[in-house]
Amino acid sequence: MRPIRVMEVLEATAGGTRRHLRDLVHHLDRQRFDLTLVVSTLRDPDFHRDIALFHMEGVRVEILQMNRHITVGGDIRAVVEMSNLFRQYKPDVIHAHSSKAGMVARLAARRSGRIPVVYTPHALAFLSDSIFRKLYLALERRVAGYTRCLIAVSKEECDLAMDKRYGLAMDPKRVKLIPNGVDTGTLRPIDKRERQMVGFVGRLCRQKGPDFFLTVARNLYNSDKTLCFRMVGSGPWERWVMAKAARLGLSNCMEIKNVRDEVEAFDELAEMSLLLLPSRWEGLPYSLLEAMSVGVPTVAMAAGGIGDVIESGRSGFLCDIGDVHGMALQAQAVLRQAALSEQIRVAAHKRLAEFSLQKMVAETAKVYEEIA
Description:
The structure is a single chain. This protein is an alpha/beta fold. The protein folds into two domains: 4-181 and 356-371, Rossmann fold, CATH 3.40.50.2000; 197-355, Rossmann fold (3-Layer(aba) Sandwich). It has 14 helices and 13 strands. The strands form two sheets. It has a seven-stranded parallel β-sheet, sandwiched between helices. Strands 10-9-8-11-12-13 form a six-stranded parallel β-sheet, with helices on both faces. Helix 10 links the parallel strand 11 (274-277) and strand 12. Helix 3 (72-89) packs across helix 4 and helix 7 packs across helix 12.
């Protein structure tokens, strides 16, 4: 029996979606699956490094530029070009990742002979607080019928996919919950540090809440001048974050570091004493799973799949979205109580067994085989 021909489609070639695609490509069994990628390089020119690695592994890569934002002419062009690629490669399954690729791929598949499409939103666009969220919901509803299986990375996303009033009203049989996963590894011992470091890892944009982080950092620094802070990431808010940190008097104790990929981000994360995740909306952030794997306690706002992973008070702490006061109090407790920090480290690492990379890949492969 020949391998199943799978075409992976991604426009959002940065952050967690980039990581997710790379993990699938590296770990799917090539005896069972013949992979072709269709990707855009507009998000991050550095993605060409990933493309070179894919070529070394014998994976075909087609570059089809897609604009992150809605552009009628550009989106129509993308649908037409993708339809041509589908006809050329004749995939058995198409797996589209994130909103733009999900929309373009499903329309193109419909145009090319109803090829079955798996769609992973990685946080449905209408979960955001954008003024366009009603439009995003309407568009997602319009093409939901072209989706053979929607893979949700969080329970919130799963519920919304099936919700008839506020979501996509999809048949529960066509919705599958498969959380992101990472290598669990071995829990490392705590390195002795002269100063405790409180960190943020993520894109510097409204979604990830860097403004909340700065407010919490200022509150923490008011109570303990020995603390230092590190923000790892880049994005449209970078200049604003730097200016805001200066206005809050944090310049002498905070650094902002840009990294090329999750390997460098992991190294930065491993040096932290505490990770703060102040997101306004989420899918399931890899930074949380990586923190758990490396033994860094996490205090987070309960956005998206974060609440699926953290058992508040046991494997981390949760607070309401926007509750900077509550986040600061919980962070202080972890920083001041070494026994509590260690308890969270151990419990979080045990909890991570439910979110392994092997499990994620195996369940995704099963979906491909079921619908091919």
